[in-house]
Design a protein that fits this description.
Elements: E1 2-3, E2 7-9, H1 12-20, E3 31-37, H2 44-56, H3 58-65, E4 78-81, E5 83-84, H4 93-107, E6 114-119, E7 126-132, H5 147-162, H6 168-174, H7 178-194, H8 203-209, H9 218-280, H10 288-356, H11 364-508, H12 518-529
Helix pairs in contact: 1-2, 4-5, 6-7, 8-11, 9-11, 9-12, 10-11
Length: 561
C-alpha cells in the first residue's frame, strides 16, 4: 500500500471532473466505478455542487451548529489523495471503498463529504479520493496534523492487518513491538544484501546507460562491472555508516540515561540526608495554627486551675470569714442595744421632769429637755452611719489581709501558668526558626540541584549537537560521493557512446573502425577506477549488472512501495 501525496485545491468541479473522466477528455474509459460518501446523491457531478455549496455556506453552518463564526474562510476546501496497491494485486471494489473509508477515518474525514473513483490506467490498482475539508454539520475546516505521517502510519497498519508487509522501511519506522521490528530489520538487511529490493534501475544509472549501443560488448560490460563494484562498495559504506550512526546514537542515549539516573539517585540521597538532618535536630515542625490551638487549650486549663485554687483558698478561709462576720453582726447588735438603752434613759428622764412640773410652771429649762430629746434622735442616725463606716473599714482591712495572705499562692500559681505559656511560645519560636533554616537549606539545595541538572542537560545537548553535526558531515560526504559516482558514470558512458559514434562514422567512411581492445578498455576502466566514491543507497548488489535481454533502453519498475 502506497498512499500518494495529498494535495489541496479550491475547485470541487475540477477535482471531481479529473478523477471521474479521462485526462483532458469527456470520456470515462479509465474510470472503473465511482461512489459518493455522506451525501444524498450518487451522481459525482451533483456531489461536486453539494460540496461547493457546503464550503460556500460554512459560516451559516457554524452559526446553526452553535459555534462562533470567527476565523478566515478556507481558501482551499478541496483535499485529494490516492491509495495505491502493489502491481499484481487484485482487490475487489468493495474492499477498495472500505480501504478509502479507513484512510479518511485516519485523517479525521470520516464524516465529511467525499467522492471516490477507481482507475485502471496504471499497472497497479488505485482509488482516488476527493474530500471536502468543511464539515457539513459544524461548518468547521478540518486540517489533519501532518497528514503524510498519518497516511504512512495508516498504510503500515493496513499492510500489517492483511498479513503482508511490503514496505519494510515504513514498517521499521512505525512498529512499536521490538521483536517484530527486529524481524523487519532482518528481512530488510537480507534483501539489501541480495539485491532483491529494487527491480528497476536507479535513475542515474538508467540515464547514463540509455541509448548506449552494444550493451553486451566487452567494454560496456567492463564499465558496468566497474561501476557496479563501486556502487556495491559505496552502498555497503553507506549501510555501515548508517549502522555506526545508529550505534553511536544508542550508546549516547544509554550513557545519557545512566548519567540522568545517577544524578537522580544522587539528588534523592541528598534529600534523604537533609531529612535525616532535620529529624536529628530535635525540633519538630510546629505551625502557627497548632500553636494557637494548643494555647487556647492551655488557657482553658489555666482558667479551670485558677478557679479551683481560689475555691480551695475560699474554703480554707471560710471559718475565719464566718467568725469575722459573726463579730460584726454582734457589734451591730450591741450598737443597737446601747442606742436603744440610751434613748430610753434620756426619754424617761425628760418625761419625768416635764410631767412632774405643771405646764404653767415650766420654764425655759423644761423646753431644753425637749430639744435635747429631739437632738438625741437625730444624732442616733449619725452615730449609726459612723459606726457602719467603722465596720466597713474593719471589713476592708480584714479581706485585704486575707488577700495579702493568699497573694503568694496566687502569684506562684500565675507565674507557673505564665511559664507554661512562655514555654509554648518558645517552642513555636524554635520551630519557626528551624523551619526558616530548613527553608533556606532546601532552597539552597534546590538551586544547587537545578544548576547541576542544568549543567548536565547543557552538556548532553552539546554532545547530541556534536554527534548530529558529525553525522550530518558524514551524510553530506556520502551524498557527495554518490553525486561524484553519478557524474563519473555519466562521463564514462558518454565517452563510450562517443567512441561508438566515431566507430560508426569510420565504418561509413570506409576506414577501419577503432579497436576497443585493451587500450580503449584500459582507458575507460582507468577512467572509472580513478574516481573514488562513497555514499548513499542507489546501488545494491545486482543492480548495475546486465540482465538477459537488456538493451539499455528499457526500465522495469516495481511499483509503489
Amino acid at each position: 500500500m502506497n498512499p500518494s501525496a495529498a494535495s489541496k485545491g479550491n475547485s470541487f468541479a475540477g477535482a471531481v471532473g479529473y478523477i471521474t473522466h479521462d485526462v483532458g477528455k469527456d470520456s470515462t474509459e479509465r474510470v472503473t466505478f465511482t461512489e459518493v460518501l455522506n451525501m444524498r446523491t450518487n451522481d459525482p457531478e451533483k456531489a461536486a455542487k453539494v460540496m461547493a455549496w457546503t464550503a460556500l455556506h460554512a459560516t451559516q453552518l457554524k452559526e446553526a451548529a452553535g459555534f462562533k463564526a470567527t476565523g478566515r474562510k478556507s481558501e482551499n476546501p478541496v483535499y485529494h489523495f490516492s491509495p495505491n496497491w502493489e502491481p499484481g494485486e487484485t482487490v475487489p471494489h468493495q474492499e477498495m471503498v472500505a480501504t478509502a473509508k479507513s484512510a479518511l477515518a485516519a485523517l479525521g474525514y470520516e464524516n465529511h463529504e467525499a467522492v471516490l473513483a477507481v482507475h485502471r490506467d496504471k499497472p497497479h490498482q488505485h482509488i482516488h479520493v476527493v474530500v471536502n475539508r468543511i464539515n457539513p454539520e459544524t461548518g468547521k475546516t478540518h486540517n489533519p496534523n501532518n497528514d503524510y505521517e498519518a497516511l504512512q502510519r495508516w498504510a503500515y497498519q493496513y499492510e500489517k492487518g492483511r498479513g503482508r508487509v511490503v514496505c519494510l522501511d515504513r514498517a521499521i519506522k512505525y512498529e512499536k513491538d521490538k521483536s517484530l521490528k527486529a524481524e523487519y530489520t532482518k528481512r530488510l538487511t537480507a534483501e539489501l544484501d541480495t539485491g532483491k529490493v529494487r527491480e528497476s534501475k536507479p535513475r542515474p544509472q538508467w540515464q547514463a546507460e540509455k541509448e548506449a549501443p552494444f550493451p553486451k560488448s566487452k567494454t560496456a560490460l567492463e564499465i558496468k562491472a566497474d561501476i557496479a563494484n563501486r556502487v556495491r562498495a559505496l552502498a555497503k559504506s553507506g549501510r555501515d555508516t548508517a549502522a555506526r550512526h545508529s550505534k553511536e546514537w544508542d550508546e549516547l542515549k544509554a550513557r545519557h540515561e545512566v548519567e540522568n539516573l545517577a544524578l537522580q539517585a544522587k539528588q534523592r540521597e541528598a534529600f534523604k540526608n537533609r531529612r535525616r538532618f532535620n529529624q536529628a535536630s530535635g525540633v519538630e515542625p510546629y505551625s502557627w495554627k497548632s500553636y494557637q490551638a494548643d494555647r487556647a487549650v492551655l488557657k482553658k486549663q489555666h482558667l479551670a486551675a485558677t478557679q479551683k485554687l481560689r475555691a480551695e483558698l475560699k474554703a480554707k478561709d471560710a471559718p475565719e470569714v464566718e467568725r469575722f462576720k459573726a463579730g460584726q453582726t454582734a457589734a451591730w447588735r450591741e450598737f443597737f442595744r446601747l442606742e436603744k438603752a440610751a434613748d430610753r434613759g434620756q426619754l424617761d428622764k425628760a418625761l419625768k421632769v416635764v410631767t412632774a412640773t405643771p405646764v404653767g410652771a415650766q420654764s425655759h429649762e423644761h423646753r431644753d429637755h425637749l430639744a435635747r430629746l429631739f437632738n438625741s434622735k437625730v444624732e442616733a442616725g449619725t452615730r449609726k452611719v459612723e459606726f457602719g463606716v467603722v465596720l466597713d473599714t474593719q471589713k476592708r482591712d480584714f479581706f485585704r489581709g486575707l488577700t495579702q495572705k493568699n497573694a503568694p499562692v496566687l502569684v506562684a500559681h500565675k507565674e507557673g501558668q505564665d511559664a507554661e505559656l512562655m514555654g509554648l511560645r518558645n517552642r513555636f519560636d524554635q520551630a519557626r526558626e528551624a523551619q526558616k533554616f530548613r527553608a533556606v537549606s532546601i532552597n539552597t539545595s534546590r538551586e544547587a540541584t537545578a544548576e547541576e541538572r542544568k549543567q548536565l542537560q547543557s552538556s548532553q545537548r552539546s554532545e547530541r549537537a556534536a554527534t548530529k553535526a558529525r553525522h550530518a558531515t558524514d551524510t553530506e560526504g556520502q551524498q557527495q560521493a554518490w553525486a561524484d559516482l553519478n557524474k563519473t558514470r555519466a562521463e564514462a558512458w558518454d565517452t563510450y557512446k562517443a567512441m561508438r559514434v566515431r566507430q560508426a562514422g569510420a565504418v561509413k567512411q570506409g576506414k577501419p573502425p577503432e579497436r576497443t581492445g585493451d587500450h580503449d578498455r584500459g582507458t575507460l576502466t582507468d577512467y572509472v577506477n580513478s574516481r573514488s566514491v562513497q555514499g548513499r543507497d542507489y546501488g545494491r548488489e545486482g543492480d548495475a549488472g546486465p540482465t538477459p535481454g537488456d538493451t539499455g533502453r528499457t526500465i522495469t519498475r516495481k511499483g509503489p512501495a
